């Protein structure tokens, strides 16, 4: 895998060309972080916090998860959210969805020829957290490659495993859907950063849309994460990146189409009639249809020339904003000069060429104009 700045993670390429001279492999840093992760996980067992050898889980929700998966396997009631063993005879309608159930069930069925279904389900639930943590750790290094240099990328895995709040979601003997949410969030973050770095990538926008829909299917708690993705791309468009609008349209359309499929898979005949807010439903699809309609209207206005880079044409500038036309500096010369666009200040040059009130602008020999004094 090759990061955007030419740093190789593994021997396989990512389609961005070979790593330039001077780039190094991140495999030793990632491998060391994985070793530290395994030591911490083993410490949970040795200290008695995760007594897996006694057949014990460390979280009450874990038992509920395993009972729910066993009931799904026995009864096959895929579209029935009510769990009959809680508050019988009515049962309790759960807000959990099926993706994590399927993940647990797949591992249990894979181990059942060797251990039996119940034992296979238990041991798979014990190992699932660390496996998700390993996948998230590798995904985080890939996701942050456009943003961080090699030295920080080497430290990032250690920062990730050192967070107790994050580590708890991946602990041994704790089957929890938040580990899947974290992995999906990291992958979505990676594709969002790549869209911000190089807008106008249809496949990247659609992949981000699919990940957004999958994250919402796992839990509607991911709605905030998806909203931040839309906001980041929207700010890129407002800042003047016209191609970001196409990415927003592809992302919104992909989310809507994927959510239609998700509702049919998750709810079946009840996909249209049920509008719960704590489990993926028609209410969430409606919100993202409105999001798609908004960006379609922005695209139509931009196509007709009524919008330029996200701002209405001929709109008055807010108070305190500098005019867009060149103006003479207040320095020793009278030559008109224009401020350097923020896009020319790249990661490789910032902050050495960032214009300040006491330094010259890179695009002009004139001394920059001093701003108003603050009280």
The gist of it:
The chain has 375 residues and is mainly alpha-helical. The protein is built from 11 helices and 6 strands.
Report the radius of gyration as a whole number of Å: 26 Å
**Strand percent estimate:** under 5%
Pick out the low-confidence regions.
Answer: 1-22, 313-375
What structural class do helix, strand and pairing data support? mainly alpha
Task: Describe it.
This protein is mainly alpha-helical. The protein folds into two domains: 1-14 and 24-175, no CATH class; 177-310. It has helices at residues 27-46, 60-75, 98-115, 117-143, 150-161, 164-167, 178-197, 202-218, 223-238, 243-267, 282-303, and strands at residues 82-83, 92-93, 307-308, 311-312, 327-328, 336-337. The strands form three sheets. It has a two-stranded antiparallel ribbon with strand order 1-2. The protein contains eleven helices and six strands. A hairpin with a 7-residue loop joins strand 5 (327-328) and strand 6.
């Amino acid at each position: 895998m090759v990061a955007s700045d030419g740093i190789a993670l593994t021997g396989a390429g990512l389609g961005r060309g070979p790593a330039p001279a001077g780039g190094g492999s991140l495999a030793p840093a990632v491998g060391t972080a994985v070793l530290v992760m395994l030591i911490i996980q083993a410490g949970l067992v040795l200290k008695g916090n995760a007594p897996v050898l006694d057949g014990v889980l460390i979280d009450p929700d874990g038992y509920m998860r395993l009972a729910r998966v066993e009931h799904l396997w026995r009864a096959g009631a895929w579209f029935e959210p009510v769990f009959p063993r809680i508050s019988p005879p009515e049962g309790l309608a759960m807000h959990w969805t099926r993706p994590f159930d399927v993940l647990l069930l797949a591992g249990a069925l894979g181990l059942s020829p060797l251990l039996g279904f119940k034992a296979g389900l238990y041991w798979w639930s014990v190992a699932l957290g660390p496996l998700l943590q390993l996948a998230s750790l590798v995904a985080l290094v890939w996701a942050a490659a456009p943003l961080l240099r090699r030295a920080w990328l080497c430290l990032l895995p250690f920062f990730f495993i050192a967070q107790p709040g994050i580590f708890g979601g991946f602990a041994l003997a704790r089957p929890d859907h938040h580990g899947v949410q974290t992995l999906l969030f990291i992958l979505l973050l990676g594709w969002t950063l790549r869209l911000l770095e190089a807008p106008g990538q249809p496949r990247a926008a659609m992949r981000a849309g699919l990940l957004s829909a999958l994250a919402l299917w796992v839990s509607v708690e991911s709605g905030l994460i998806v909203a931040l993705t839309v906001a980041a791309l929207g700010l890129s468009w407002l800042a003047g990146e016209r191609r970001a609008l196409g990415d927003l349209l592809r992302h919104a359309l992909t989310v809507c189409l994927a959510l239609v499929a998700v509702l049919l898979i998750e709810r079946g005949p009840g996909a249209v009639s049920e509008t719960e807010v704590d489990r993926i439903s028609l209410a969430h699809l409606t919100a993202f249809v409105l999001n798609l309609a908004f960006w379609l209207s922005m695209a139509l206005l931009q196509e007709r020339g009524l919008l330029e880079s996200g701002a209405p044409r001929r709109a008055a500038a807010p108070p305190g904003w500098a005019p867009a036309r060149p103006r003479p500096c207040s320095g020793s010369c009278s030559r008109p000069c224009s401020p350097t666009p923020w896009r020319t200040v790249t990661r490789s040059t910032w902050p050495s060429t960032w214009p300040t009130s006491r330094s010259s602008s890179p695009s002009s020999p004139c001394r920059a104009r001093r701003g108003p004094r603050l009280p």
